[in-house]
Design brief:
Layout: E1 2-6, E2 9-13, E3 21-24, E4 30-34, E5 37-39, E6 41-47, E7 50-55, E8 65-69, E9 92-94, E10 99-101, E11 112-118, E12 124-129, E13 140-146, E14 157-158, E15 165-168, E16 179-185, H1 187-194, E17 202-205, E18 210-213, E19 215-220, H2 228-242, H3 253-260, E20 268-275, E21 278-279, E22 289-292, E23 298-300
Parallel strand pairs: 1-10, 18-22, 19-23
Antiparallel strand pairs: 1-2, 2-7, 3-6, 4-5, 4-8, 6-7, 8-9, 11-12, 12-15, 13-14, 13-16, 16-17, 19-20, 20-21
């Protein structure tokens, strides 16, 4: 893999696909130094084979950065670096000599947490978060698309001020783009672009959403004497409700409880919703997560 630092973001690329995650707070399993001093990581997003880390503050172009990871410090219910087979990464360190610091003083960094994915058979969505502004207010974003894996690109297309996502439909010959890129602009960047400087941009292949299959346990009160048809109806309404969730939408147990209790005779004391053994009620999820629930994933207690 490799490591790139740009502004306040670190991008790690691994040789295997990772379990999707979104963690915020002070993430103590990362040991980052900038110029020999510790720098906290406040956000981690893992997507496909990349980990996007957000530092508490930005670095300058000539800052020396080191990266360390301690798996034993990943707390219960938190996701560190785990591949799709469930293998947890061993501790690792990345010396400064293997880290590319591409920060350009005065210019905005690449759009943060940049990812792109299909939202169906006929749509593509790209999205990103706000990035280090280079000391100037970011006045807009632009994007470009490619249909030939990045060999040729469209012209840069400006987005409305403050917009950090774009949804695309097929072109006139029913093709969806397979690469998309984006860049931020501030007054310094605009001045340099007039001189022929194009600036840094984020690049992503178009990928499929990450399916997160849920497990649901419905606890019924002792007074409930539901017949099989009613139990099956509870399963049906829960499956339908989960499959209505948008990608990345937060799962709320109270929402599921409300639809389940509409079933005649249902007396429910609790509903638990987990993914991979982890409770996902009211937990922020990556925007590219696609929830999935089937009747066979629901049990009664």
């Amino acid at each position: 893999g490799n490591a790139i630092v740009d502004g306040s973001q670190i991008i790690l690329t691994f040789d295997r696909e990772l379990k999707a995650s979104a963690e915020t707070g002070t993430l103590g399993w990362w040991d980052i130094t900038v110029g020999g001093s510790a720098r906290n990581i406040t956000k981690q997003i893992t997507y496909q084979n990349k980990a996007f880390l957000t530092m508490a503050s930005h670095v300058d172009h000539d800052d020396v950065v080191t990266i360390g990871y301690d798996a034993s410090d990943v707390g219960s219910g938190k996701t560190g670096i785990i591949d799709l087979s469930g293998i947890t990464s061993l501790d690792f360190t990345i010396p400064a000599s293997n880290i590319i610091n591409q920060t350009t003083n005065g210019l905005p960094s690449i759009p943060a947490d940049f990812r792109a994915f299909k939202t169906g058979t006929d749509m593509v969505k790209a999205m990103w978060e706000s990035n280090y502004n280079g000391g100037q207010t970011i006045d807009g974003y632009e994007y470009g698309i490619s249909y030939d894996n990045g060999t040729t690109w469209s012209e840069w297309i400006a987005l409305a001020s403050g917009t950090r996502e774009v949804e695309l439909s097929p072109n006139t010959v029913s093709q969806l783009p397979n690469r998309i890129r984006a860049r931020a602009s501030n007054p310094n960047a605009q001045t340099l672009q007039k001189l022929g400087f194009t600036g840094l941009n984020a690049l992503a292949p178009i990928t499929r959403p990450v399916e997160h299959r849920l497990t649901v346990v419905v606890t019924l009160s002792q007074a409930s004497q539901l017949v099989r048809d009613a139990l099956n109806e509870i399963k049906t309404v829960l499956v339908n409700r989960v499959n209505q969730y948008s990608m990345g939408e937060t799962i709320w147990v109270n929402d599921l409880l409300a639809v389940a209790e509409l079933v005649q005779g249902a007396r429910i004391t609790n509903i638990s919703v987990t993914h991979g053994g982890t409770d996902v009620n009211d937990v922020e999820q990556p925007a590219f997560v696609n929830w999935k629930l089937e009747a066979g994933d629901i049990t009664f207690a």
